[in-house]
Amino acid sequence: MIKTIVNAWKVAEIRKKLLFTAFIILIFRIGSVIPVPFLNIVNEIDVGKGNTILTYLSLMTGSAFTYGTIFAMSITPYINSSIIMQLLAVAIPALERLQKEGEEGRKKIASITRYVTVVLGIIQSTAYYFFLRANGYLMTAADGTQFTGFNAVFQAIVIVCVLTAGTAVIMWLGEQITIDGIGNGISIILFAGIVSRFPTLIKQYIQYIETGRTVYKVLVPLVFVAFILMICYIVFMDNAERRLPIQYAKRVVGRKMYGGQSTHMPIKLNMSGVLPIIFASSILSLPGTIQMFISSDKYAGTFWEKFFSAFQSDSWWYAIMYFILIIFFAYFYSTIQYNPIEMANNLRKNNGAIPGIRPGKPTSDYIFRVLSRLTLIGVLMLSVVALFPLIWSLICDAAIPPLTEGGKDGGMSISLGGTSIIIMCGVALETVRQLESQMMMRHYKGFLD
Questions:
Q1: Phi-psi sector, 102: left (phi>0), alpha (psi -120 to 50), beta
Q2: Which residue has the higher pLDDT, 16 or 9?
Q3: What whole-number distance in Å separates Cα of residue 79 and Cα of residue 221?
Q4: Nearest Cα to 62, choosing from 183, 234, 201?
Q5: Cβ count near 359 (within 10 Å)
């Protein structure tokens, strides 16, 4: 990867794209520290330590959410919008037809996705405003009371508009990287937000070592080794694929003979990427989010106390439900993305066949069996990455007692979850592929030379 970046830097045109991408990332990071007007946040917003939608947003926004900056919503509305459009394209025939119309259809879908992003940004910003108001993070009048009447309405409009505009600006910045930069702009913005949490992560591990406990002096280096091994594991999983052999029959058109060649159909092992983890963590964060708006005195000692505790990330029940939901969404997404019947029909239309398998229904059944097995293997490998931080934290919490009686200075958590690691590795690999393809285009000596 380093060699690819060094070689890309030597090409003047690609070097300009790399510098432009770095400039856009710099703008993104500057916007991530500019506070929103009318907010009064001394240190950072308390999003809790449990599993809530707020901790998820803080993770995906590179902690900009916890500081109330203009980019606090980050790229999450656009990601949600893209996922919604992807799912609706399966359910709504009109959107499905647009997808098959080529470049013009994709442009229309991209335009609709932008409008949906703005709508989601308004909804998310409004919810964020009410959360800030309920927890006393807004500027108050001289007597310490919250604004009322016109002042309160004006304050709400400014905060929601600034946050929504921040979402639109980030979406535009990502598109500029795609057009004039090295490509894959939205993912690079997300990558930059996650990487920005590294200094906080390193500071946390330094604090573990500063406690002077021998167990931390052993476990902290072990975590970094596990992190490197996990990156290698994800790279292997991302590049792994099953290649179905395809044989095309010979056919004569006029005086020329076409076909008769052998090729393969690549099917990735991890077909759904990080989406099953995102869906699963989003659903499991809903009970914790609801719990934030309910007084603990109302459900203390009841069934609901056990119910909410089961959805906290420090519970074994949470790990089990997380694993089951990842498997469910992996199969759900692969079913949406791959249609064995359509794949078999396309092969037959092009006079292609899988050796040893008859065209038609036998081919679609064979592809379905292959997809099912690959999905199972891929999701089990994906679950290892997703569950490792959780299981590590659960084991350390049980094995490492606190320094003080009744204190919370025991255990050891891994702040960088499986979702973040997979996103980082996936974006890095895709960026390297983009650079390699651009260098190949510029060094390829075509038939005109």
A1: left
A2: 16
A3: 34
A4: 201
A5: 15
What DSSP string describes 216-230? Answer: HHHHHHHHHHHHHHH
* H helical segments located in 32-75: 53-60, 64-67
Q: In the 8-state DSSP scheme, what is residue 295?
A: -
Q: β-pairing, 352-353 with 262-268? A: unpaired
CA distance linking residue 32 with residue 64, whole number of Å: 5
What integer pLDDT is reported at residue 415 of this predicted model?
A: 59
Calpha distance 413→408 (Å, rounded): 12
Helices and strands (DSSP H and E) totals, the chain: 18, 5
Maximum alpha-carbon separation in the chain:
92
Q: Would you state the structure tokens that stand for residue 409, as one six-digit string?
A: 């200075």
- pLDDT higher than 50, residue 449: no
Check residues 270 and 298 and name the one with the higher pLDDT. Answer: 270
Question: Any bridge partners for residue 264, and if so which?
Answer: 245
What is the distance in angstroms between the CA of the first residue and the CA of the last residue of the chain? Answer: 30
pTM metric for this prediction: 0.75
- Amino acid in the structure at residue 383: S
The predicted structure's pLDDT at residue 23: 93
Which DSSP helix (H) or strand (E) runs through 246? strand 241-248
d(CA 236, CA 360): 33
HSE-CB of 442 using CA atoms within 13 angstroms: 14
Beta carbons of 127 and 156 less than 8 angstroms apart: no
Q: How far is CA 134 from the centre of its chain?
A: 29
**How far is the C-alpha of 426 from the C-alpha of 275, rounded, in Å?**
12
| Closest among 31, 54, 51 to 134, alpha carbons compared | 54
Map residue 442 onto helix, strand or coil: helix
Distance between CA atoms of 407 and 414, rounded to whole angstroms?
Answer: 19
Q: How many CB atoms lie within 10 A of CB 31?
A: 18
Pick from 322, 360, 369, 320: nearest CA to 342: 360
Count of residues making up the chain: 449
Half-sphere exposure of 408 (CA within 13 A, CB side): 2
